Amino acid sequence: MRENFKEILNEYNTHAKDTATKISKEERVFLQEEAGNLIEKSSKKRGNSAEVQAEILNIQKSKQNIMRKMHKQFRKLDNGGVIESLEKTRIVSFDKNSGKFYYSNSKDTIIFLDISDILTDGEWGITYGFDNSVPKSVQKKYILSEAKREIANKLDEQIILDESTSPTTDTFKQKAYLEIKKSKANQDKFEGFLAEKMIKGLLAKLSIEGADFEIEEADVYQDVEQKIDFLIRRKNHNRAVGVTEDDKIIGVQFTLNKAKEDFKKKQVERSKRNLKGKSKRKHEREVDDIMLVVMPVEKLSSTYRKWAEDKKPGGPENLWDINMKYQILKGVLNGLVDEEEIRKLLYKDIKTDLELDLFAKQSELEDVKKELDRRENNQ
Q1: If you ran DSSP here, which 8-state letter would residue 187 be given?
Q2: Is the terminal CB of the chain with fewer CB neighbours within 10 Å at N or C?
Q3: Are the CB atoms for 213 and 207 separated by under 8 Å?
Q4: Three-class SS of residue 24?
């Protein structure tokens, strides 16, 4: 987000924390006056109305409420309590002997799931509750992941409100922000959004399961201004002992449409030039690089519809076969993770001996092709 808007949110956050504590009538009057002054100052800084800034402040207060609720749930768990579940929530149990998580569906069928499913299925509107058999550490991770998702959505609301009304944002981009706002409610109807969501889900689950990278959401400002759909944080294991070095952060611009490749390349190159022009502050990380991934994934809508029939754990991306997952990961992680590492990440997803055999043969063929290409280039 813009630096001056970040400063505004920091001031709003401090104010929101103050209003959350038990205060006297006099202190409440003072904080109301402070809020009015903050809104007026922010309105002048960003050039939009006091009403817009007041709404942004109220959203900041709701973000604080999410944080307070999270810490309250943590304390309840620590004191031996159980977190109340919403209606239609899947109640998860844990079997110590097998080390497996499971729940019973509406037909009383036992459904097994992984911790990576539990922590990522919220992207598809699925919520989980837990009985006392589930370790507190897992329950806390789930509460944290859901809070982060809610706060990220609230941040996007704030950015859209600000950017779509500020005269510092050009008219074309103002419309882009409003289009994103309009499409958010129906994203799963569009193949581009579906593909991005499914690929992020696949990567996020691998990250949770121990892959040497992390997936981070791009906010709506990064989407519009920098053409970044999501971020990959690649950890660096090649640093010398005693040398402090930040992990590398790569912004990913993803498209299904091969015909738009040249246009997207130009957008990414422009964003890269803008990145190089920015000086990095010591207290925050910037994106190190931006890469374009062009991948015409087929049958997205039909895959989603098939998954939506019973919404099994793991999202619609769980219906991709092993070779589809491999091809997607090769495309997205090109230059970040070598092919052998990608294969190792996927072995746990192989369900039958036949699938294992086919995957092994596919890997062998690719190795042979690579060797032939190398020899041809050396001639």
Answers
A1: G
A2: C
A3: yes
A4: coil
b/e 23-58 (16+ beta carbons within 10 angstroms → b): eeeeeeeeeeeebeebbeebbeebebeeebbebbbe
Instruction: List the strands of the sheet with 90-95, edge to edge.
Output: 110-113, 100-104, 90-95, 128-130
Q: Is the dihedral of CA 140, 145, 150, 155 positive or negative?
A: positive
Structure tokens, 110:
């036992």
Q: Is the alpha carbon torsion for 130, 131, 134, 140 positive or negative?
A: positive
pLDDT value at 323 more than 60: yes
Provide the CA 340 distance to its chain's centre, in angstroms.
Answer: 25
d(CA 134, CA 109): 19
pLDDT average, residue stretch 87-93: 89
Q: Mean pLDDT in the chain?
A: 86
**Separation between Cα atoms, residue 315 and residue 317, nearest integer Å:** 5
Name the residue type at position 179.
E
Q: Write out pLDDT tens, residues 230-251.
A: 999 887 654 444 434 457 889 9
Q: How far is CA 344 from the centre of its chain?
A: 23
Q: Half-sphere exposure of 64 toward its Cβ, with a 13 Å CA cutoff?
A: 18
**Which residue is listed with tokens 């931006």?**
290
261 Cβ contact partners less than 8 Å away, ≥ 6 residues apart: 255, 292, 294
CB atoms within 10 A of CB 291: 18
- The pair of structure tokens assigned to 9 is 């949110």
Which 8-state DSSP code applies to residue 123? G
Query: How far is the C-alpha of 16 from the C-alpha of 60, rounded, in Å?
Result: 7
Of 214, 235, 194, 211, nearest to 346 by C-alpha is 211
Question: Partners of 94 in the beta sheet?
Answer: 101
* DSSP-derived secondary structure for 322-351: HHHHHHHHHHHSTTTS-HHHHHHHHGGG--
Gyration radius of the chain's alpha carbons: 23
**Residue 19 DSSP SS3:** helix
Q: Is the pLDDT of residue 344 over 90?
A: no
- Amino acid at the residue 118: I
* Tokens representing residue 119 in the block: 């922590």
Distance between CA 32 and CA 45 in Å, rounded?
20
